[in-house]
Amino acid sequence: MLELHHVSKAYAEERQVLSNLTYTLKAGEYVAVMGESGVGKSTLLNLVAGLDTPDSGEVVIDGVVISKLNDDDATLLRRKTLGFIFQAFHILPHLTLKQNIALPLLLNNMPAHRIELMLAEVGLSGRGDHFPHQLSGGELQRVAIARALVHRPRLVLADEPTGNLDPDTAHDILQLIRTEIKKNGASGILVTHSHTAAATADAVLIMTKHGLRKAESVRSG
Ligand SMILES: Nc1ncnc2c1ncn2[C@@H]1O[C@H](COP(=O)(O)OP(=O)(O)OP(=O)(O)O)[C@@H](O)[C@H]1O
Ligand SMILES: [Mg+2]
User: Suppose 190 and one of 19, 32, 113, 181 were both cysteines; which one would form an S-S bond, judging by CB atoms 3.0 to 4.6 Å apart?
Assistant: First the structure.
């Protein structure tokens, strides 16, 4: 599903973030990535999403080298195949919640039939016609999650998706992300600082400056 081949990324010569990182994520595999702040977790997700390009090495999604695609093809692949849940969510303020959640469907010419279901799954039934300014920060994060999953992406990338949420809501949201990934046979990467959150994935990877290695994990729930 996702292959990283000798991926390196530096932001300046003295700022080597990823060096020679190689990793394969299989179809249907859901992993958590933990590691200290600044080690490069968000950088890694940005490279996988094609939002940034590696200095060397290749990011391959379903056999396609994304850094070799032109901008249009990269956008199409991203739109169809990926679901992003980033902590800095980008909910559009002038659209209702329903309209925000419908965006990935609209962009992919897919029917708009899962919107109410997704609203219900993130606990926001009946609020589809509200505008983002009528919601709390945690509720907005749930809208971002509904939007990221509505088009059943094959690869879900989540960067601290529950950082803004109380523990109970965080638990529910993490279960929802897992359930959606598994139901759709998708793959996923969950970046988190929380061991509890990480335990909802199939496996936990620890990121250090030397790369990614598997940690022991016992999945909860
Ligand atoms: N656009 C940028 N320009 C310069 N340096 C950057 C840029 N983006 C990230 N960095 C640096 O690269 C390193 C890795 O950043 P990254 O955001 O990937 O870390 P992280 O593992 O996600 O950390 P956190 O757990 O705090 O979110 C950090 O030292 C950061 O300061
Ligand atoms: Mg980060």
Answer: 32
Taking CA atoms only, the protein residue closest to ligand 1 atom 24 is 37
The H or E element spanning position 32 is strand 30-34
Q: Which residue has the CA at smallest separation from atom 18 of ligand 1? A: 40
* Domain definitions of the chain by residue range: 30-37+70-215
The angle formed by the CA atoms of residues 31, 36 and 41, to the nearest 5 degrees, is 50
Ligand 2 centroid vs 19 CA: distance in angstroms? 17
| pLDDT tens, position by position, 11-69 | 987 788 999 999 999 999 999 999 999 999 999 999 999 888 999 999 999 999 988 88
- For residue 44, give the ligand nearest its CA: 1
Global model pTM greater than 0.85:
yes
Q: Is 42 in the pocket of ligand 1 (CB under 6 A)?
A: yes
Please say whether the beta carbons of 4 and 23 come within 8 A.
Answer: yes
Query: Exposed/middle/buried for 156, CB within 10 Å: 0-12, 13-18, 19+?
Result: buried
What is the Å distance from ligand 1's center to 214 Cα? 22
